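Researcher: Go.
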Amino acid sequence: MASNLRVDNIQPSTAMGIGIGTANGSVTFNADVTGGLNVTNGSVGIGTDTPTQDLEIQDDTLPTVIVRNRTSSSYARVLLDEVGDAGGGFTINRLGSTSSAYGGARAAQIWNHANAPIVFGTNNTEAARFNTSGNLAFVSGNGIDFSATADGSGTTTSELLDDYEEGTWTPLTSNFTNTVGTNDCRYTKIGRKVHVTGALTRNQVSAPTSAFFTITGFPFVRNTNTRSIHGNFWLDNGSTASDNIGGIVYMYLTDSLIFATASNPAQQASTRYVNATDFADTRGILFSVTYITD
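Model: Structure:
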């Protein structure tokens, strides 16, 4: 027959101890009432007589908190919530061995059920966050660090990928005497490398006023220490293939693209600039170029 211990209305001036006489025994609280075991005031300490927080656990080996579900198809959960808040709280879940929830069997889940980000920080400073769109966003200057990978034979200046952007841009052609229509001009920026494409159309507008055709207005300023510019173009200059010309593009330090071609396709050394003559009946020009920004 199990023995019972009941203590009512005791108000000691310092503390009250409940224990048993054997080192390997335990004290079990079997609450068969709705309220369970309640600590209405003060702190709970495990391994310490002076807890500094609501619950504090100390151990010389490996302090551990176990939350274990007895049903393999369900999950164990730690919930952080606010009284009266309808946001749903923040949970850390571990799925059971037969669970079919997000991630599948034995998956670990981190959820913010509210419409708010999950923020990661180090040294008391935000480093990155999953925003409400589900994207991983780094703070300015942070990114993916590849310093653990093998380095090349040159001098490494950075192994941090900290920027990606894509969008549209509007080329400027100030050396035309009339407006040049733009169509599908786009750019992609990965780190410091910028790749731009352009499709310009002309509807019987005047030819270039300068000696050669140039384009400015790029989405990012070119790094002035970088002189290697890669690009090409195709000029649809007439109704037959023989009227069309193509070539390479050069970029000035002022971020102006100059289009150059060979006067005779068989003689690539005979290079000249695309000029007004080439635009006698031009329907469009396509180009792409890759350069480095700061």
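Model: The two ends are 81 Å apart (CA to CA).
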